[in-house]
Amino acid sequence: MTAQTTPTPPFRDPQLPLAKRIDDLLQRLTLDEKIAFLHQFAPAVDRLGVAAFRTGQEALHGVAWMGPATVFPQAVGLGATWNDDLVRRVGEAVSTEVRAMRARDDRVGLNVWSPTVNLLRHPLWGRNEEGYSEDPKLTSAIATAYTRGLRGDHPTYWRTAPVLKHWLAHNNETDRSVTSSSVRPRVLHEYDLRAFRETVEAGAVAGVMPAYNLVNGRPNHVSPYLSEHLRTWTDEELLVCSDAGAPSNLVDSEHYFDTHEEATAASLRAGVDSFTDHGTDGSTMAERITKAHEQGLLTEADIDTAVRRQLSVRFRLGEFDPDLDPYGDSKDFDTPAHRALAQEAAEQAIVLLKNDSLLPFAEGTRIAVVGLLADECKLDWYSGTLIHRSTPLEGLYDRFGAERVTFAEGVDRVRLRTSTGAYLRVADAVEAGDEVRGAAGALDPALLAGRTDLPPLTIDAAGTELAMVDWGEGVLTFRAPDGRYLSVAEDGYLRASADQPGGWVIQETFHLERHETHENGHLLKHAGTGQYVSVAADGVKVAAENAEIFELIVTQPGEEAVARVAAEADVVVVFAGNDPHINGRETEDRPTLALPDHQERLLRAARAANPNTALVLVSAYPYAVDPAEIPAVLWTAHGGQAAGTALARALAGDVSPAGRLPQTWYASDADLPGLLDYDVIGARQTYLYFEGTPLFPFGHGLSYAQFAYGNLEARVAGNEVTVSFTVTNTGGVTADEVAQLYVRAVEPSVPRPRRELLGHRRVTLAAGASTELTFRLPLSAFEFWDVAHGRWRLEPGAYELLVGASSEDVRVRTTILLAGEPAAPRPVVAHGLNGADFDEQRGTEIVDRTKASGDAVTAVEGGSGGLLFHDCDFGPGVTEVTVEVAGEGTVEFSLNGGPVLATLTSAPATADPYTYTTVRGAVSAAGVHDVHLKLRGPLRLARVGFSG
């Protein structure tokens, strides 16, 4: 008898087309199995031999949340390198480590949620550290490089599957799940969509993640833009993964839908394919999808579409072809090459903002190192665990010798005296347990907030002198002499149990509040719980009552130590900046551009003691500092594991700084628009439109060399503009230069950018060497979104090409003439006016026309607002104007700023904001005119029509 073999199912056959394999597996799944696949944690289907699958692995600048990994500079630091090739190599290293870690821990996912391509429109955004740039061209170039590295170069199989975050127009953390970004069509197409589009079109993106916020009144998780725009940019199946908890927000916080079944169905139909909600438990989402299907809100075909997109990613990751997967046996992890790349990236991210010949430091220089960031290697929310680390102080010790470097952190040393006269006391390391410190005396890397096996703080007559670190805005951390931070665990007790502030809710930050009646008395409020510190018989804890009244005794002001070491040195380096978990991070926007007062005091103390002072800002975002009295200023994002070594080499001149600012640094808060004003054109935001004088402009960065530009040539041929020029290193050292090409429309008919980045190139040149750079630009690079006709248009006329070292440091320029398409008036008789297609507005915002699609315009908070539409062609004449409106209010119609010609009043029978009525009025107009509309009251204007 011959044994029968089970035939290989078609979905296991790598010779078949991908679509046929997906279809075969899809038809083998039951409805319940398909529904279960739609949660972030898709279960295994044992009967088919299909493994469990997880969407989502954080990999913003290294593998995050999964333990030790190579930590590269923050994303904004990678953006500051302006180096596409470097960032691609970083992506390769990160995805290689993802694969290596996956081989030993199946919790590590291959669908990576990275990079973040939200534009850094507003520098007070708490998540500034996660983006690359305020400019869409630079952002898309860096994001494309990173995704290509993450994807790998195999024609069939992907090393990891990158998902872009966060779709769309997301730049605020304050009330982020309920605020709406009002984005006019020009800003939508020319700015916010552009970074996503160019990255997706490059072909290495597996999907996107919608953001928590709403856009034009509609949550991003039910955005029609997913189908209208995103999925038209590629032939690949894109996987849309929800942000964590966002599916429930549609009902619970946004109140956009009445039931979770309705919300889930709307998300799925809009294009969300994987629901990240309720942690690892997929049962709630499965129940919602099942009920939505039973209620007729979803069809099985809708479910199949979403599952097909997920399966497409899984096939591309080689899951069903383990013998053919070229990345399946990847073991490269923490290699010498990865360590060297982390240092190279950290060096290339350093931006020299100012240098009055103080840098680089000569051999033998006596250096005073001061400041809160001098001996720190800070991590952020999306970092992995450090395997290696170097602080700036350690880097300078290694480079210049410990005998040439002195250090003063500059924190205030304090004791906290209770109302009984006793002082807060921290058990020392021996008392706390030998496990707190390793063999070399360093803090155990497992020392984290939340530990309850260490003794809580107590009080005694002597107490413990604590380092009090003031991070600004009244936020304090306290540190024991051995480096342990005071932290509060779930049991409420204070312990010295954290190596750094961290976690989703920071348990290491406090506020000192003056007591109302007790002279010199303070209450110590714990930021994480909102409760006050109290003293009990069994230890110090936070509680809802019995708050202790403390007297703060400063035993040594930080400025004294700084002044002392500064006066004894040849030069001083002040390290200032932020802790990425404090005062600006996910869930928390910054209140100001200003450097914290305590750090300003340290800088002044150092400068007063020694005028040869350099300021090094180590931060996740720009600051407004006054550089007038400071001879040298550098900035770097938190640079990962090699930050200290990189900074020391830059200060010593071993490498010439060549990073460039990826966003404008403004001189003061007064230069900033409101955080929720997303109209970069109307509010004149970013270097594209800003008309003031920046502290440091977009693209700015100095060098230890000098560079000359020349031989600029531009040629228009067919559908392409070719630009070439030479760059020469006229300095005495080998250095990198970042050549930048910008364009300016000379006489635009609509507001256009003051200048706009067309291309960039980072090159290394030896002293005296030259290179010729060539850029080939499609004519589409010169187009703008014509709201009058709802499409891209190249305007004929002169365009100035600007070449130089920053957006403001232009070295050579030339002008080209482009034919283009002349402007045409709006054909309002044939097509009417969509309310959101205005040219200018005042006091209005864009809202959702319906829950499914379309835009309308309303006056802000129901007051009054105005819309202006230029060059409306009424032909031989019209006699009637109609407005399609919802809600109560009036629309006043006038031409060319003249008298009101018609007042159209809406008095709806229902309060439903999505029930529209048509209101008519008599007018007389012919020829071409500007249309002015004034909106009064809380009505929504969707459309204006005209008839003769």
TrEMBL record:
Can you give the residue ranges of the Cellulose binding type IV domain?
827-948
**Residue intervals of the Fibronectin type III-like domain:** 737-807
Q: Which domain of life is it from?
A: Bacteria
Instruction: Give start-end of the signal peptide.
Output: none
Question: Which SMART domains does this entry report, sorted A to Z?
Answer: CBD_IV (SM00606), Fn3_like (SM01217)
Any one GO molecular-function label of the UniProt entry: hydrolase activity
Recite the UniProt keywords alphabetically.
Hydrolase, Signal
PANTHER family (alphabetical): BETA-D-XYLOSIDASE 5-RELATED, SUGAR HYDROLASE-RELATED
By sequence similarity, the record places it as follows:
Belongs to the glycosyl hydrolase 3 family.
Q: What is the recorded name of this protein?
A: Sugar hydrolase
User: Which organism encodes this protein?
Assistant: Streptomyces graminofaciens
